[in-house]
Amino acid sequence: MKRQIREVRYFLSGQHFSDGLRITLAILIPSVVFYQFGHFETGLPVSLGALWASITDAPGPVMHRRNGMLAGTLVMVLVSLITGFIRTNIWLLGLEVALFSFFFSLFAIYGNRATSVGTVGLLSMILMIDRELEPVAVWQYAALVCAGGLWYTAISLSSTQLRPYRAAQQALGECIHEISKFLLIKAEFYSVRTDLQEDYRKLVTQQAVVSEKQDAVRELLFKTRVIMKESTWTGRLLVLTFSDVVDLYEQIIAMYYDYPSIRERFGKTGVLDEIARMIRQLAIEMDYIGLAIQTNRPYKSRADLIRHLERLKTRIDEIGQQEKDNSNFVLKKILINLRNLNQRLTTIHTYLSADGKTNPKDKEAPEYSRFVSHQEIDLKLILNSLTLGSSIFRHSLRMTVACLVGFLVAKLIAYGHHSYWILLTVSVILKPAFSLTKQRNYERIIGTIAGGLIGVAVLWMAPNNTVLFWVMVALMLGAYSFQRANYIVMVILMTPYILIMLRFLGLGGISVVEERVLDTLIGCAIAFAASYLFPRWESQQLKGLLHEVLEANRNYLRKLLDSLSGKPVTITDYKLARKAVYVNSANLSAAFQRMTSEPQSKQWHRNDIHEFVVLNHILSSNIATITSAYLNAERPTVCPPEMLRPVRRALSVLNESLKSLDGEAAKTALEPPLTETSGPEKPESMIAEDSSLKEQLDFIQKLSHDISKLTDTILT
């Protein structure tokens, strides 16, 4: 029950709900105000403009949000004017549908925010098609839509000005929340009752989610001037907390052991269940810390984790005494990792209780700008993408064909008063990836039917218009809160909200529900059929993603070799290599998940790709275990050449795999020939003679060979 309560609190204090509240108020206020003065028809376009501007207001740096909203407002005004003046000519209108659907779909080349601007352009065209306005009224409509866009922009920027750190706190809290889920999945590896392959599937899927959340925090922290340029206490605290959170996540990933072996050796003792329980307690503690950061409230720990750790230590010691032939060394290593996790959580917890008078311990300051990507708006990107080799170009062609078919069907079928719903459904359902289009189709159909039934029930049961209005407000708030979080829930709530709104406009009734469902079914059918045009299957892109993952792990392994050889490795360079591994692994995992939703005949080495993802995760976990320990050591030792030989062989094997995957790309990326140098001379006492380290390095070499064999199998 406590977990459900935490989920609700996360939602109510999170970015999605605050966005939903802001959008709802920005849409409602103009219509309600103008209604009070008897000009409701004037307030509707203003509310519509506010709605469109909100689409471009995705979380991110203030400057990017401002530019996105202003660009969206400009696009909606221009498209409304063009559509309003040519809509009387069916041929010109059809030409506009074809050109605009292609042109605005190309915006995806410039990233998600530009994609939302293109979506605004399509929506403003679609909703203007059936408006019968005189030339003067077209100018008035465009002016009102512009006023709505500027109105929403002013509200959004004002709220940011009043609470400049709120978005970063919410993003950081959500990131910690997802990492706690990752840790909960890790706990399942110590249970003899779960399937390890299923555990790995969940783990790599959640890793993609965590990577997305970390990127969102980086964008907000490292591209926000008030946080990075001003020496404010809150800003520094957020940056330090995020840095520790990423290090904490690395430590969780580095907690890799031979799970089949420890299950076989210690499964009957019951200690693994105690370890899993301890990990879950740490995950819950982390979840509460994330919630405290997101709600911007102090948090006092209610769990005595140290006492639980001591109890676990006693249990491990008892096993060591009872089963002398069955060494408990691996259990002690697990205990040390759990203690380190608890220590990191304690450090993050101290930041929450800091009063601003005592500065937290400073670390090496990384060059934060190197951790975020920079998207340039260059016309050459579009020109270079006008080829069938570009997935965005293929998607733009699909969108053009689908919108033209939807437009023709809407004009040929004279059913109801909202034929634009067909074109609207096509534009929001059709996505660049086949699997996403398939999923959206399913969610749209189920959501529309369920929402239609709810809408009919509400219209039938509501005693008066006042009750209907407040029900509509609640549905609006829910729909706009879930629009970026859960599409099917958004559709379920959006459908009755639209039906109630049409009732207030005098267009309600069962016939509207039937029209809504029919138009949705037609639009979904067109979008799904179009997804088979010029397809770009995920299997066609997997080879490049496999190459990127191998290259990232190869560079990560190079940092391990440098640190063991005594060569200087800066914290920034190490963290950049670590980030590349996380991001590329997440991209491969996400692409693999999308491929599993594609037709069976289009899936490529499904089981082998899954094994590849798992092996690379294990490889990066083992690299992180050793490298982070060496970089954090006060006096790192230098390994002799013979101990480094497995690492050098692993690097050579990964290089060969890169050649196999993509010869030309790999040739330019290959490292210089590996020579067996041991780095600068060190005293004999500092030379590492650790048999455990030797075993880990041998295991890394074995993993590299397994990955190489698997790569050859995939390419066969």
UniProtKB/TrEMBL annotation:
<feature type="domain" description="Integral membrane protein YccS N-terminal">
    <location>
        <begin position="69"/>
        <end position="344"/>
    </location>
</feature>
<dbReference type="InterPro" id="IPR049453">
    <property type="entry name" value="Memb_transporter_dom"/>
</dbReference>
<dbReference type="Pfam" id="PF12805">
    <property type="entry name" value="FUSC-like"/>
</dbReference>
<comment type="similarity">
    <text>Belongs to the YccS/YhfK family.</text>
</comment>
<feature type="transmembrane region" description="Helical">
    <location>
        <begin position="68"/>
        <end position="86"/>
    </location>
</feature>
<feature type="transmembrane region" description="Helical">
    <location>
        <begin position="517"/>
        <end position="534"/>
    </location>
</feature>
<dbReference type="Pfam" id="PF13515">
    <property type="entry name" value="FUSC_2"/>
</dbReference>
<feature type="transmembrane region" description="Helical">
    <location>
        <begin position="138"/>
        <end position="157"/>
    </location>
</feature>
<feature type="domain" description="Integral membrane bound transporter">
    <location>
        <begin position="410"/>
        <end position="529"/>
    </location>
</feature>
<feature type="transmembrane region" description="Helical">
    <location>
        <begin position="487"/>
        <end position="505"/>
    </location>
</feature>
<feature type="transmembrane region" description="Helical">
    <location>
        <begin position="396"/>
        <end position="414"/>
    </location>
</feature>
<keyword id="KW-0812">Transmembrane</keyword>
<feature type="transmembrane region" description="Helical">
    <location>
        <begin position="20"/>
        <end position="38"/>
    </location>
</feature>
<feature type="transmembrane region" description="Helical">
    <location>
        <begin position="444"/>
        <end position="461"/>
    </location>
</feature>
<keyword id="KW-0472">Membrane</keyword>
<protein>
    <submittedName>
        <fullName>FUSC family membrane protein</fullName>
    </submittedName>
</protein>
<keyword id="KW-1133">Transmembrane helix</keyword>
<feature type="region of interest" description="Disordered">
    <location>
        <begin position="665"/>
        <end position="691"/>
    </location>
</feature>
<keyword id="KW-1003">Cell membrane</keyword>
<feature type="transmembrane region" description="Helical">
    <location>
        <begin position="91"/>
        <end position="110"/>
    </location>
</feature>
<dbReference type="InterPro" id="IPR032692">
    <property type="entry name" value="YccS_N"/>
</dbReference>
